[in-house]
Amino acid sequence: MNVVELNPSTPAGLVKSEILNGVLRLEMNNPPANALSIALMQALKDALDATRQDKSIRVVIIASATPGKLFSAGHDLKELTLHRADEDRGRAFFARSMKLCAELMQTIVHLPVPVIAEVDGLATAAGCQLVASCDLAMCTDTSAFCTPGVNIGLFCSTPMVALSRNVHRKQAMEMLLTGETIDASTAREFGLINRIMPRQYLTQVVMKYADVIASKSPLTVKIGKEAFYRQAEMSLEDAYDYTAQVMVENMLARDAEEGMNAFIAKRTPEWTGE
């Protein structure tokens, strides 16, 4: 088992990490609610950034170190509230927190390897945003999700970015306007979750998906993930023009040549990542 090195300035223990067979598992460890404090968000971002220097990592899993309770309660409201005593009523700290949160979510999207959310418990506000930002999301049948900012006079505007890019508009607005909690089945129906299972099978199923993805060409997965998010923001015509160019460049890669030759020869391909 390997451990990802975090930024020396990051408090130790906020994120537990281990690497097994090319799969990096990151567990948020900020009890009791895994609130996304400045320190936890920075720790997660540092851990994700570190994967860019480790070519052995093929997939990342984000989970909670305390499953069955709260996956993440979102921003640390106590931390935010303390800064209302600042001379600027907290403006600078609020801006810093929201900026770091946006950077964390974009880091997940722009990471060259897929990121899977393993959810067992409640994912609320920015915690729900974290789930929506991941490429895949699996949860237990007792998990739940919400964007309840409207209940405390703080609309979930930044969670809305990830949420509205994963679920239909009216369903996103339903969550944002009511602040009500949806169960796992509804989350899957909305498109927020890929799979639901009993708690005892969650990690096993997530690892199965991670292992399958890790067995693919890392270059091909990187190309595909980047293209997926870029084309999603384009017009239909521009998306086809762009992805056609991506396909041509992908076809010229050695892994594509190896994969097609292996398919024709009915053998297992040997990926080089080139």
TrEMBL record:
<keyword id="KW-0809">Transit peptide</keyword>
<dbReference type="GO" id="GO:0004300">
    <property type="term" value="F:enoyl-CoA hydratase activity"/>
</dbReference>
<dbReference type="InterPro" id="IPR029045">
    <property type="entry name" value="ClpP/crotonase-like_dom_sf"/>
</dbReference>
<dbReference type="InterPro" id="IPR052377">
    <property type="entry name" value="Mitochondrial_ECH-domain"/>
</dbReference>
<dbReference type="InterPro" id="IPR014748">
    <property type="entry name" value="Enoyl-CoA_hydra_C"/>
</dbReference>
<dbReference type="InterPro" id="IPR001753">
    <property type="entry name" value="Enoyl-CoA_hydra/iso"/>
</dbReference>
<keyword id="KW-0276">Fatty acid metabolism</keyword>
<protein>
    <recommendedName>
        <fullName>Enoyl-CoA hydratase domain-containing protein 3, mitochondrial</fullName>
    </recommendedName>
</protein>
<dbReference type="Pfam" id="PF00378">
    <property type="entry name" value="ECH_1"/>
</dbReference>
<keyword id="KW-0443">Lipid metabolism</keyword>
<comment type="function">
    <text>May play a role in fatty acid biosynthesis and insulin sensitivity.</text>
</comment>
<comment type="similarity">
    <text>Belongs to the enoyl-CoA hydratase/isomerase family.</text>
</comment>
<keyword id="KW-0456">Lyase</keyword>
